[in-house]
Specification:
The complex is a heterodimer of chains A (289) and B (273).
Chain A: E1 17-20, H1 26-32, E2 38-42, H2 52-61, E3 66-69, H3 83-96, E4 100-105, E5 107-110, E6 113-119, H4 125-142, E7 147-150, H5 164-175, E8 178-182, H6 183-193, H7 197-203, E9 209-215, E10 218-222, E11 225-229, H8 238-251, E12 256-259, H9 267-288
Parallel strand pairs in A: 1-2, 1-12, 2-3, 3-4, 4-7, 7-8, 8-9, 9-12
Antiparallel strand pairs in A: 5-6, 10-11
Chain B: H1 4-16, H2 35-57, H3 59-65, H4 67-80, H5 95-101, H6 111-126, H7 135-140, E1 150-153, E2 157-162, H8 166-171, E3 188-195, E4 197-202, H9 205-215, H10 220-230, H11 236-245, E5 249-253
Antiparallel strand pairs in B: 1-5, 2-3, 3-4
Helix pairs in contact in B: 1-2, 2-3, 2-4, 3-4, 5-6, 9-10
The chains are: A alpha/beta (289), B mainly alpha (273).
Chain lengths: 289, 273
């Protein structure tokens, strides 16, 4: 569909800051073409055949490297991913040539019924073997490597026997997929479940890290218990910026996305967040050099 | 310890109906907050997510019945109809039919049709881009073949008919000082079409019958007969010209070959993409 996908066709996503592309910003982005490193979209938003979503994505694709981020594949389900879902995603990959394709280390459906949320997996040997098989199936079907993102979670299963960081490393190691390290989710989970987020970051295997995410989250109180909810509706918190600095120091400069999905701000605010990430990325380049 | 599938079944069952789930909830580490409360967070997220999906599609319904009433309808629908796709754009198709049978909506007779128009707009928004009929090629066609030509309705359009004045009801939400719409002021026949924005094109009874026949894959001759059956005064020529000019008809196919075969396309219909 995109007439020309330009100089960025097949180009990798640069180790720079990018922003999530949302419909509310289509016109402003096309008009301003701001200096931002790359764009990421939710793949499912382009599962429709035509209209404004494709019109704008095709236009912007000529100016920016693009990453596809899925929220609906349900790769962690005991079910195989839906064939039509994978077929449409593959078609879109062919049309837009994204530099990265990612999904979540979570599940969202069982027996064909969808919850349409990123639900936590039990970290067991069985889950691990299953995930590795699923990733292998998906990568073969799509014909490309995918990254899996550590999801934010609000509960832990009694039967989990493997720490999350070890689970995600093992999935990447055994399946050949990459890791999308969501720094905000690490922080959210660390607070929700009581572990050290800095240590978690250090234990993630650098060789597999292909992208990072930053986003804002909310705090909800349930009686005396505070739960961090991954709402993507505000600026990145100071705690998460600090953790991001640590992640860069440990894993090196990595393509970093500012995600904002609810209560969307004017484009300038989003670009301000991206600029903050960019300046940290650049400091890191300077130190590394 | 349940296997992965069993755990996911139990989890999903508890999200859908926490009090009547058939099996125990998955065993969850309490850690300051009980497992039931933690599952409740996911249940709330799921509902909020699906509710906002329905709100986006059925904004007009919400504007007409109010936020709170809409929320009640949406929650009842979510409870009754599981989502069956990872693509949320597919959720909510049966909401118009649901509204029709949902007792609290019984007195709002016009609501199912307004909801149907909402779903149609959603479909039209996402539909594939249309080509254009090649008028020059059409002029070169053998007049003897005219009756057997098959046009296609613009893929980014849908027909809807209602005994209520849907366009006027729809416009209420955009008015600063909403007045009243006389529900008995007459029904409507519309072609909902994407032309940049989504537009409602009012159709005469004969045009509606004609386009419905075209949409069902009938030939030009058959569609013209359908138009004439609806209104003996139907004048095909001017209507056809208007429909082609305005992009309601987007493709035309010769009679000889079987529908769908490459050879059937005698007229070039360039896509816009």
């Amino acid at each position: 569909m995109p007439a020309q996908v330009s100089a960025f066709k097949d180009a990798p996503i640069p180790a720079a800051a990018g922003i999530g592309l949302r419909a509310e910003h289509y016109r402003d982005l096309c008009a301003e073409l701001p200096a931002v490193g790359w764009l990421e979209v939710h793949s499912e938003n382009y599962f429709g055949a035509g209209g404004a979503p494709h019109h704008y994505l095709a236009r912007l694709r000529r100016h920016y490297p693009l990453s596809f981020h899925g929220v609906g594949m349900s790769i962690g389900s005991a079910d195989r991913p839906d064939a039509a879902h994978l077929a449409r995603l593959k078609e879109l990959i062919g049309e837009y040539s994204p530099g990265l394709v990612s999904e979540h280390l979570s599940w969202s459906s069982i027996d064909g019924e969808f919850i349409n949320d990123l639900l936590p997996l039990p970290y067991t040997g069985e889950s691990l073997r299953h995930l590795v098989e699923q990733v292998d199936f998906v990568q073969h079907t799509l014909g490309c490597k995918i990254l899996l993102e550590n999801a934010s979670t609000y509960l832990q299963y009694e039967e989990s026997e493997i720490p999350e960081w070890e689970f995600i490393n093992s999935v990447a190691q055994k399946s050949g997929c990459g890791i999308l390290l969501d720094v905000n989710n690490v922080f959210v989970n660390a607070r929700n479940h009581g572990f050290d987020p800095f240590q978690y970051l250090e234990r993630i295997d650098t060789r597999h890290v292909g992208e990072m995410h930053l986003a804002g989250h909310s705090v909800k109180n349930f009686g005396a218990t505070e739960v961090r909810i991954d709402t993507h509706n505000r600026e990145v918190s100071d705690d998460v910026w600090r953790l991001y600095g640590h992640a860069l120091a440990h894993h090196g400069a990595t393509p970093t996305l500012i995600e904002w999905d609810a209560d969307l701000p004017p484009l300038a605010v989003l670009l301000g967040e991206a600029a903050a990430a960019q300046s940290m990325l650049e400091q890191h380049h300077a130190r590394a050099a | 310890m349940p296997g992965l599938r069993e755990l996911q079944r139990r989890f999903a069952a508890h999200l859908r109906a926490p009090d009547s789930a058939p099996a125990a909830a998955p065993a969850i580490v309490a850690n300051g907050l009980g497992g039931a409360r933690r599952l409740q967070i996911y249940r709330n997220n799921m509902r909020a997510n699906l509710r906002s999906t329905l709100r986006n599609i059925y904004r007009t319904v919400e504007a007409l019945v109010g936020e709170e009433f809409f929320r009640g309808c949406a929650d009842a629908y979510i409870q009754e109809r599981a989502s069956t796709s990872g693509d949320l754009n597919r959720f909510g198709e049966n909401f118009p039919a649901f509204v029709k049978t949902f007792p609290p909506c019984a007195h709002l007779e016009y609501l199912p049709d307004v909801a149907q128009l909402g779903w149609i707009c959603h479909q039209v928004f996402l539909a594939e881009d249309a080509g254009r009929v090649d008028l020059g090629a059409l002029r070169r066609a053998d007049p003897e073949d005219y009756a057997a030509l098959r046009f296609a309705l613009n893929p980014a359009s849908r027909l809807i008919r209602s005994r209520f004045p849907l366009a006027a009801i729809w416009d209420l939400q955009f008015q600063k000082n909403p007045g009243e719409v006389d529900l008995d002021s007459g029904g409507c026949r519309l072609l909902v079409m994407r032309r940049g924005d989504i537009v409602f094109i009012p159709l005469a009874a004969a045009e509606f019958a004609f386009l419905s026949a075209v949409a069902a894959g009938r030939t030009l001759g058959e569609a013209a007969d359908a138009g004439l059956a609806a209104d003996a005064g139907f004048d095909l020529g001017p209507s056809l010209t208007r429909m082609v000019r305005e992009g309601m008809l987007t493709e035309v196919r010769a009679p000889a070959a079987a529908p769908g075969s490459a050879a059937a396309y005698i007229f070039h219909t360039g896509g816009s993409s």
